[in-house]
Specification:
Layout (H helix, E strand, L loop, with lengths): L1 E3 L4 H6 L15 H10 L2 H12 L11 H33 L2 E6 L4 E6 L8 E5 L7 E7 L3 E5 L1 H4 L4 E5 L4 E3 L12 E2 L9 H8 L2 E5 L11 E5 L18 E5 L4 E2 L4 E3 L3 E8 L5 H4 L10 H32 L2 H4 L13 H12 L8 H17 L12 E2 L13 E4 L6 E12 L2 E4 L14 H12 L4 E4 L4 H4 L13 E4 L3 H10 L4 E6 L3 E6 L2 E14 L4 E8 L5 E7 L1 H7 L21 H12 L4 E10 L1 H15 L5 H12 L4 E12 L3 H10 L3 E5 L4 H10 L8 E5 L1 H6 L3 H12 L7 E2 L5 E3 L4 H6 L3 E3 L26 E6 L2 H8 L1 H12 L3 E5 L3 H13 L4 E5 L5 H6 L2 E5 L6 H5 L2 E3 L4 H42 L10 H7 L5 H5 L9 H6 L4 H5 L6 H27 L13 H24 L5 H23 L8 H5 L2 H28 L3 H15 L1 H7 L4 H5 L17 H6 L6
Parallel strand pairs: 17-29, 17-36, 29-35, 30-34, 34-35, 36-37, 37-38
Antiparallel strand pairs: 1-10, 2-3, 2-4, 4-15, 5-13, 5-15, 6-7, 6-14, 8-9, 10-11, 11-12, 16-38, 18-19, 18-28, 20-21, 22-23, 23-24, 24-25, 25-26, 26-27, 27-28, 30-33, 31-32
Helix pairs in contact: 2-4, 3-4, 4-30, 8-10, 11-29, 17-18, 22-25, 24-25, 29-34, 34-35, 34-38, 35-36, 35-38, 39-40
């Protein structure tokens, strides 16, 4: 609990200052902390250990610089990147912390300028419109009775949110008539008060609030005012007088980083500062996600490491046994003093260090840089650019996972649909009303008294704000008078688009909400103004699934509780049919007294894919209202169990309501959603829809968006079906057997509906839960499916599983036996629909799928999807009308669901293919140079642990000589974009992980490297001989000539290998591929010309015709067998991607337009049969030429 006394020094000293720190390092701890973070990674620690061991001369076979220099380079580049990013954060922190504010000085009785960082708890701050809020504050006075804030910096939502001023309530009588029937709030302060007056008044109050909490919509507090309750009194009350207490809630708190809007001036009290603010408490390091390809390579790296350890012990043991008495045979090779007892360890470490090159020190750096490039390409893809929004990559480390997605779990509203609501139909007292325009003409709705009352309830039962765009600030401050005669364009604004749609639709019922503030509202009914008092608002809560208000009509003093919400919840609250007598006092039509009739209406709208709500009311007496307000005030003033007490009061209020009618709202699908989902299904990706809508609506949307087809068999797990069966396990077991095709004796009626089985009465009775999806009376436009009448047990039909959320899904998720059955059942279904799910259940379902080893992609657009998005391996957020909460929590953010096609089929596949090759090639080239070390020791060094290569060559091998062309492979394109977009089935190849499978990694690259390195070594020695001692060269070893020639052969081999494995050779690739031998020659000429190095003169002895012909012959001998094997493999088992690439090449050869595009391709690319890139087939908008130049999709 926190007690805040305004302008009190002891309060300020008790809590932290307002300094904001987002940076991670300082000048003093950067090196230590950054290196510590890097060395925490096992692979980096491994390289550090290797570099350290190489400084022990007795065990080091090569110069320690061969490892230390590449390690230092890699670490330095990583540290520079981290420092650059942190410098940006330091600058942002400095700008924020040094920003000046107006803060009240108690001693000087004036407003003084202070920086953000110097603000403390209890300080009084003067804010102007448009200023961001420096810390968490409550408003003590403002130019408006309600202040507005924009919270997009906090939660991404652009809609303005109202906040109440903390003020004492000076009248608490509840009389009718013209008086406001609830407590009148009176501001303690005024923005026009002098500083001395403000200081004096603030001495009369104290704020008690809860401890800091990261929950944005959580704030409990009480403001105490120590003065008489008389409006005229301003003297401090006597010590024995109880203070006036006012409840504070989330409607009073203004969080840090929000922006003050529509309020000229506000005087605020700081309650949380610095690290205690909600903004800072919500700062947490994002969940670390590793791509599946990183996990695979970690397994391979562990295998290689075990091989290194094994080689160290095996070769060390052999070397020790063969050389322990070597001084007796060779008197000139005496054992060094002190090595007698350490010989085995020395030999073991030598061979371990010789094989450390097997794990390339550069591959992690190369893959990280490739991922960074992939992220840039994704963010600049014009196919994912809509309305000024580009795709945003927040986690580039998992780009490859986009190419291996097994499951897509999607929200519905705002994700598959546009979240643009239109109020189309209403059923009022049993009579359907169509509000939708017919042939662009507005409909005329007959509005009897019951219809008007229905519109009145909808207009008042919401949290909509009425905004007049063309009215001056002074006029809008006049409250209700503005809405009833002011000239201006009126619009509604609310956090939920449903409420805006309902208010707009009510205008067709001749009811119009014209003004609203915290305690009053005004509606026009048939052009006549009605004023209402708002006593209490029950905000929408997911656990209640309702929203309600207690209001009172000013002229008649009629008091009502209006409520709207989900049909299942409202039906629970409704009066029993037997006890329901009489109808609403407003209309003469028949009441909708039958719950069965209500459910029939709800289902009727649901099969059209419409969102439905039930609307109800309850009449209250004055005593009931007074009793409720007293209880709720007592609960709100409590600092213990406040929410629980209010929860109980809400339950008491939500009963015995009378249902007035049903609303039906349309939320249209986004463009290209059906095509996108069909592409996923063709690619072998299973799609699950997780929505909070009712089952019927979810099923119809699934049919509309091609998640299922009219010929699919639907297996439903619903509450009524489960309860009617003997056991839940038995029912789900019957569905499982049905999906496996076991129940072949099930009878089928018309259109493929199962009608039962005489041999299995239990299943036969309950199999009615499994129906065929059919076209609903023209409600959707879809292609006819000729297999609709086919037995769904046949292999030509798919199964769709529909699960009811809430208690049903909760029980399944918490019961192991049911969970196992659900898992098996879902595996037999092409798609799964989970309706009535809560945000927690969405995350639980995602966790369930992920736990089975599948790669999941979760996509959503609202705050209720954040948990699901963070739980999945790949989280995708859609920037929509519900704000940017999901986009901020996601790994990738897009603006449309259809952008997933480009993200998954194009960028995902290309990224996985490129990274897989980079990893395979990195290990391959390391094996090439490492195996020779072992072969050299086996045949020519008596297992002494000597190195065939010199330190200079080892240092440059994984750096200068091979790093550039490896990194630039990220420009390669195995399959053209056009083919990837139009052939989703190719995704199955990438999703299977074949590019980095065991056969590819070990068979095509590791074993190839072993074969080529051994063959190169012996072919070179067959030419130059094995006598490494050269008596004619005064100490110059002939081994250096052999090493130089072998090294040159491996350099040329890399040129040929990269060309063989490349599919697109750009000019940049060509420069580094063909330029690398030139660089090698130049480096060796310089190295060999320096007399201070032992390599002096070696290069001159190597450059003769024999060496040149040897290089050509050996490279040919190394390449031809590999090329032959690869050709046979392609003939025997062709890669579908190569087949499609060849087909695209033939298409372009016969396409006159493609010939012109091909002219822009380099001559080298034409020689290599590279397919030129074409614009995305997803792009429907032609961009300007200059914009295409800047952001070119062809860069992939």
């Amino acid at each position: 609990m926190r007690i805040v006394a305004p302008l009190d020094g002891s309060t300020a000293a008790a809590f932290c200052d307002n300094k904001v720190t987002n940076s991670r390092y300082t000048v003093w701890n950067f090196l230590f902390l950054n290196f510590y973070e890097q060395f925490r990674r096992p692979v980096n620690f491994y390289f550090l250990l290797v570099a350290s061991l190489k400084f022990i001369s007795i065990v080091a076979p090569v110069n320690p610089l061969s490892t230390l220099l590449p390690l230092a380079l890699t670490f330095s580049l990583t540290a520079i990147k981290a420092a650059r990013d942190d410098i940006k954060r330091h600058k942002q922190d400095a700008i924020y912390n040094k920003k000046e504010r107006k803060v009240l000085n108690r001693e000087a009785m004036t407003w003084e300028t202070r920086t953000n960082r110097s603000i403390r708890v209890g300080d009084v701050i003067l804010l102007r419109e448009g200023e961001d809020i420096p810390c968490d504050v409550v408003v003590l006075a403002a130019t408006n009775p309600i202040v507005y804030i924009r919270t997009d910096n906090l939660d991404g939502e652009l809609d303005l949110k109202p906040r109440d001023v903390v003020a004492p309530q000076l009248s608490s009588d509840h009389r009718g008539g013209d008086d406001v029937p609830n407590a009148i709030a009176h501001q303690l302060l005024s923005v026009d008060d002098s500083c001395a007056s403000i200081v004096g008044k603030l001495g009369q109050m104290r704020v008690t609030c809860s401890d800091p909490s990261p929950m944005i919509n959580c704030f409990d507090g009480v403001a105490e005012f120590f003065f008489s309750r008389s409006p005229a009194a301003e003297t401090v009350a006597a010590n024995n007088s109880a203070p006036m207490r006012v409840s504070l809630s989330e409607n009073n708190i203004l969080p840090q980083s929000c922006v003050l809007k529509n309020t000229k001036t506000a005087i605020c009290l700081a309650v949380y500062t610095g690290e205690d603010t909600k903004c800072c408490l919500n700062k947490r390091n994002p969940k670390v996600k590793w791509a599946q390809i990183d996990r695979d390579i970690s397994k391979y790296a562990i295998f290689v490491f075990i091989f290194q350890i094994s080689c160290g012990f095996l070769f060390g043991a052999v070397g020790y046994l063969m050389n322990k008495n070597v001084e007796k045979t060779y008197w000139y090779l005496p054992m060094t003093t002190g090595e007698d007892g350490l010989a085995f360890g020395i030999y073991t470490l030598r061979f371990f260090l010789l094989t450390t090159v097997f794990i390339p020190i550069s591959f992690k750096f190369v893959t990280d840089m490739s991922k960074y490039y992939f992220a840039l390409v994704i963010e600049n893809d014009v196919a994912m650019h809509h309305d000024g929004e580009w795709c945003n990559v927040r986690n580039s480390s998992i780009v490859e996972d986009l190419g291996q997605v097994d499951y897509v779990l999607s929200d519905k509203t705002g994700t598959l649909t546009q979240n643009v609501m239109e109020f189309l139909f209403a059923t009022i007292n049993g009579e359907r009303k169509c509000l939708a325009p017919v042939e662009a003409e507005e409909v005329q709705v007959s509005c009897g008294e019951h219809v008007l009352h229905f519109g009145r309830v909808l207009s008042l039962c919401n949290t909509v704000e009425v905004v007049y765009d063309d009215v001056s600030q002074e006029m809008t401050q006049s409250g209700l008078s503005t809405g009833c005669g002011a000239v201006g364009t009126m619009r509604y604004q609310a956090a939920s688009p449903d409420e805006v749609a309902l208010c707009n639709g009510c205008e067709k019922l001749n009811v119009r909400l014209v003004a609203r503030d915290a305690t009053t509202a005004a509606v026009e009914v048939n052009g006549i103004k009605e004023e209402w008092f708002v006593h209490y608002v029950f905000a929408f809560a997911s656990e209640f699934k309702t929203m309600g208000v207690i209001v009172e009509e000013k002229s008649t003093n009629a008091i009502y509780y209006f409520v709207k919400g989900a049909d299942d919840r409202i039906l629970e609250m409704a009066l029993d049919e037997n006890s329901s007598t009489g109808g609403p006092q407003w209309g003469k039509g028949e009441r909708m007294s039958s719950k069965a009739a209500i459910l029939a209406e709800v289902e009727h709208y649901a099969v059209f894919g419409l969102r439905t709500l039930l609307v109800a009311e309850k009449r209250l007496t004055r005593n009931e209202l007074d009793e409720f307000l007293e209880k709720v005030r007592e609960a709100e003033l409590s600092m213990n169990n406040r929410k629980e007490e209010i929860y109980k009061l809400r339950l008491e209020m939500e009963n015995s309501v009378t249902i007035l009618g049903v609303t039906a709202i349309e939320d249209k699908l986004q463009d290209h959603v059906p095509e996108t989902i069909r592409s996923f299904l063709q690619a072998g990706i299973k799609v699950w829809m997780l929505t909070g809508d009712k089952v019927q609506t979810a099923e119809q949307i699934a049919l509309t968006c091609s998640l299922c087809s009219p010929g699919d068999c639907v297996l439903r797990v619903l509450a009524d079906k489960l309860d009617a069966f003997e056991s839940w396990e038995g029912y789900m077991e019957s569905l499982l057997q049905f999906s496996k095709g076991v129940m072949m004796d099930v009878q089928y009626g018309d259109a493929g509906f199962p009608t039962g089985s005489s041999s299995d009465p239990a299943v036969g009775e309950k199999v009615c839960a499994m129906g065929m999806m059919q076209k609903r009376n023209g409600s959707v436009t879809t292609e006819t499916n000729e297999s609709a009448d086919v037995n769904p047990l046949s292999t030509g039909s798919s199964y769709v599983l529909v699960i009811e959320g809430g208690q049903v899904l909760e029980r399944i998720l918490t019961t192991p036996s049911l969970l196992k059955l659900l898992t098996e059942l879902s595996e037999n279904c092409a798609s799964v629909i989970c309706a009535r799910t809560t945000p927690k259940q969405k995350a639980a379902v995602t966790r369930l799928v992920r736990s089975r080893g599948f790669i999941t992609l979760a996509v959503g657009d609202g705050g209720n999807d954040v948990a699901m998005i963070q739980e999945a391996q790949v989280g995708v957020g859609i920037t929509g009308r519900e704000g940017k909460q999901a986009a901020r929590a996601a790994d990738f953010s897009i603006s449309r669901f259809s952008d997933l096609r480009s993200l998954v089929f194009v960028h995902g596949q290309l990224a996985y293919n490129r990274t897989a090759f980079v990893i395979k090639y990195s290990f391959y080239k390391s094996v090439l140079i490492g195996i020779i070390q072992l072969v050299h020791n086996i045949f020519h060094t008596h297992y002494s642990g000597g190195s065939f290569w010199d330190g200079f060559g080892l240092t440059l091998w994984n750096g200068l000589y091979s790093l550039p062309q490896t990194m630039l492979y990220c420009l390669d394109r195995k399959v053209p974009r056009r083919v990837l977009e139009q052939t989703p089935a190719l995704y199955k190849v990438t999703r299977s992980g074949v590019d980095l499978g065991v056969c590819q990694f070990f068979g095509s690259f590791i074993f190839r490297g072993v074969f080529q390195s051994i063959l190169a070594y012996f072919l070179v020695l067959s030419v130059h001989g094995t006598g490494f001692a050269s008596p004619n060269d005064a100490g110059q070893s002939a081994k250096d000539v052999a090493f130089t020639l072998t090294y040159a052969i491996l350099i040329l081999l890399q040129v040929v290998t990269v060309l063989m494995e490349s599919h697109t050779v750009t000019a940049l690739n060509a420069i580094f591929i063909f330029g690398m031998p030139v660089v090698y020659v130049a480096a060796n000429m310089i190295y060999s010309s320096l007399e201070s190095f032992y390599y002096y003169g070696v290069w001159k002895k190597t450059t003769d015709i024999v060496s040149f012909l040897t290089c050509i012959a050996v490279v040919s001998a190394l390449v031809v067998p590999v090329l032959g094997v690869l050709t046979l493999i392609k003939i025997w088992r062709p890669d579908p991607r190569d087949v499609m690439r060849s087909a695209e090449l033939r298409r372009q050869a016969n396409d006159p337009l493609a010939v012109e595009k091909r002219a822009s391709v380099s001559r080298l690319s034409r020689c290599l049969w590279c397919v030129p890139e074409e614009p995305s087939t997803y792009v429907t908008v032609v961009l300007a030429d200059d914009e295409l130049t800047i952001r070119n999709a062809n860069s992939v």
